[in-house]
Amino acid sequence: MSLNRSYGAADMHALVTGGAGFIGSHLCDRLLALGYRVTAIDNLHLGRMRNIDHLQGRTDFRFQKLDMLDREGMDQLFATDRPDAVFHLAANSDIAAGNTNTELDLQLNQLTTTTLLAIMRKHGVGRLFFASTSAVFGEAEGNIHEDHGPLQPISFYGASKLAAEAYLSVYALSFGIKTLVLRFPNVVGERSTHGAIYDFINRLKANPTRLQVLGNGRQTKPYLYVGDLVDAILLAWDKAPGPYEVFHASGIGETSVRDIAEIVVSKVAAGAAIEYGSEDRGWLGDVPRFSYDISRLVTLGWAPKRKSTEAVELAVERILANGF
């Protein structure tokens, strides 16, 4: 797959919400490399300034700390920066946290999206990318296609993303905001702020003799390296034809939590004891297993460069090499 400047021209200005986050910061890097001017916003709830420190000082990049629920601040941003397109990645992506604060996902996932849509419509911004999730399907069985499958989320995160998708569809078809939705799988790589790899590394640094794992470790999912995901975003952004398009991205194969634990232990604290729980999932709302049909995205010309376990291994290496 060739990633070239056809994704954008030098005079294109992109707004990246969640731009200091794990995936958002990687997307900022790639958009800048393709010739976009980029404004990144983040409330720094999960985002980290260290993720974008290397971009500070560039004339084609600007960061602003901004809460997307601040409608006045958002309105002023659009009036002054005048973006041509929006890549909306801002969200509470810590699924387990939604069980402690059940308003969190409503505020940070759904209401941020509806606020953004209203501001985009007001300022005549006509293109939007939205980061969605496999969690909209809940515990669906089989190889799930974009247009088929029970939309029965079992987490507040999944429910809020599904509600946001519904609003996106209405705005796209009613007001002409061309919208691309990409449902993410489990994404791994450097700059992550949570997830199994992140948690395991931190636990072993705190106690290099023992790793405690939530659940029995048999949860099995496809993992995708963040660089491959950014490839998918940009390819679909360039080639998706319709006013409202939904695609799935996923890694090849599956990796269990037990596999991840063993990989991390081998790299961080060889010989550490691994202790598993008895539950079939790590937390309330965790989906123990899922599988995507990615043929629609493959038809556009995308395929992940790495298999699931290779993505996990690379992520561990990069996180350890970068210090986060």
TrEMBL record:
Its taxonomic path starts at: Bacteria, Pseudomonadati, Pseudomonadota, Alphaproteobacteria, Hyphomicrobiales
What name does UniProt use for this protein? SDR family NAD(P)-dependent oxidoreductase
Q: In which pathway does it act?
A: Bacterial outer membrane biogenesis; LPS O-antigen biosynthesis
Checking InterPro entries in the record gives:
Epimerase_deHydtase (IPR001509), NAD(P)-bd_dom_sf (IPR036291)
SUPFAM superfamilies, alphabetized: NAD(P)-binding Rossmann-fold domains
Superkingdom field: Bacteria
Q: Which residues form the NAD-dependent epimerase/dehydratase domain?
A: 14-239
User: Which family does the entry's similarity section mention?
Assistant: Belongs to the NAD(P)-dependent epimerase/dehydratase family.
